[in-house]
């Protein structure tokens, strides 16, 4: 049987733990066929990002159109988009092709603090992509850059969700992985009417590289299979918890989260 398809519009991580590599292995783990529009090639390892080169915007557009016109896209997500020019090209293309539910992970920097976005690009994400998004999935650093809200507790997490929804996405997931001093990891999902707290254990681990990408692609895979946003996010949260719990050391720095536990079922 032909599986459902999900498109990732994102950069390559030479270390294999984040970016399109994380997305494709997550799609695979969900039984979804992964499609790719590559936006940038990064040079990175467990210690950080040494540099990146972006793909020309017209080539990003051409990749999206090629797969959408021939294979069909059941859901799509963005990760590293690198430049304002690429973001504008993606936004324009999404008005011309059908990609189903659209998840925007507003990746601004790596967890080591290295920038993955040129300076003028954050505003383009806010104005060009958020209004087209079914769901946006910022972490707390991205929330601060996008809204100025410093999330330190449940009240400020809710205020951040309200501020982010003003940019026009249908849903927002404010991820709480970087909240300080909490025994649990609480992600807040909202469409402005419902406020759903997704609570899970906080694992003691250094190996969280690719966690945000893996969560967003797990959600995208479930959306591609027809789940509602709350169901897709709840399933994604369960999936990422297990991936964080089973993250492994690789290299001298931060190791990747792991979806390999899925193979235990086979
Ligand atoms: N130490 C941890 N233990 C369990 N879950 C975690 C841990 N760190 C992050 N998560 C979860 O992983 C997902 C990614 O979260 P977060 O770290 O906030 O975003 P990002 O990876 O984009 O920086 C969220 O669902 C978050 O709750
Ligand atoms: C190519 C590429 N895309 C995204 C990232 C971000 O990954 P990471 O630093 O691990 O942050 P989260 O995925 O956990 O949000 C990257 N480093 N490279």
Automatic annotation (TrEMBL):
Reactions catalysed, as given in the entry: 4-amino-2-methyl-5-(phosphooxymethyl)pyrimidine + ATP = 4-amino-2-methyl-5-(diphosphooxymethyl)pyrimidine + ADP; 4-amino-5-hydroxymethyl-2-methylpyrimidine + ATP = 4-amino-2-methyl-5-(phosphooxymethyl)pyrimidine + ADP + H(+)
A Pfam cross-reference name: Phos_pyr_kin
BP terms from Gene Ontology: thiamine biosynthetic process; thiamine diphosphate biosynthetic process
InterPro entries according to UniProt: HMP/HMP-P_kinase_dom (IPR004399), PM/HMP-P_kinase-1 (IPR013749), Ribokinase-like (IPR029056)
An MF annotation (GO) of this entry: hydroxymethylpyrimidine kinase activity
Keywords linked to the UniProt accession: ATP-binding, Kinase, Nucleotide-binding, Thiamine biosynthesis, Transferase
Cellular component GO terms, alphabetical: cytosol
Domain Pyridoxamine kinase/Phosphomethylpyrimidine kinase: 13-257
Involved pathway(s): Cofactor biosynthesis; thiamine diphosphate biosynthesis; 4-amino-2-methyl-5-diphosphomethylpyrimidine from 5-amino-1-(5-phospho-D-ribosyl)imidazole: step 3/3
Listed CDD domains: HMPP_kinase
Entries under PANTHER family matching the protein: HYDROXYMETHYLPYRIMIDINE_PHOSPHOMETHYLPYRIMIDINE KINASE THI20-RELATED (PTHR20858:SF17), PHOSPHOMETHYLPYRIMIDINE KINASE (PTHR20858)
Primary role: Catalyzes the phosphorylation of hydroxymethylpyrimidine phosphate (HMP-P) to HMP-PP, and of HMP to HMP-P.
UniProt-recorded name of the protein: Phosphomethylpyrimidine kinase
Higher taxonomy: Bacteria, Bacillati, Actinomycetota, Actinomycetes, Pseudonocardiales
């Amino acid at each position: 049987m032909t599986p459902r398809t999900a498109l990732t519009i994102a950069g390559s991580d030479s270390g294999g733990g984040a970016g399109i590599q994380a997305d494709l292995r997550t799609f695979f783990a969900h039984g979804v066929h992964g499609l790719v529009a590559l936006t940038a090639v990064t040079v990175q390892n467990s210690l950080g990002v040494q540099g990146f080169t972006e793909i020309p915007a017209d080539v990003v557009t051409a990749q999206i159109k090629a797969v959408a016109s021939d294979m069909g896209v059941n859901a799509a997500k963005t990760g590293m988009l690198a430049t304002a020019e690429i973001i504008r090209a993606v936004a324009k293309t999404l008005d011309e092709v059908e990609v189903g539910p659209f998840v925007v992970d507003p990746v601004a920097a790596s967890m080591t603090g290295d920038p993955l976005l040129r300076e003028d690009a954050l505003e383009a994400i806010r104005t060009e992509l958020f209004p087209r998004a079914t769901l946006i999935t910022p972490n707390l650093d991205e929330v601060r850059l996008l809204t100025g809200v410093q999330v330190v507790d449940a009240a400020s997490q809710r205020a951040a969700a309200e501020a982010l929804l003003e940019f026009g996405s249908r849903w927002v997931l404010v991820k709480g992985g970087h909240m300080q001093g909490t025994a649990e990891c609480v992600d807040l999902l909202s469409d402005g009417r419902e406020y759903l707290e997704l609570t899970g254990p906080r694992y003691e681990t250094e190996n969280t590289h690719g966690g945000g990408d893996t969560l967003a692609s797990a959600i995208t895979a479930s959306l591609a299979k027809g789940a509602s946003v709350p169901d897709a996010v709840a399933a994604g949260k369960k999936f990422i918890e297990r991936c964080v719990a089973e993250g492994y050391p690789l290299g001298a720095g931060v190791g990747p989260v792991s979806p390999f536990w899925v193979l235990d079922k086979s």
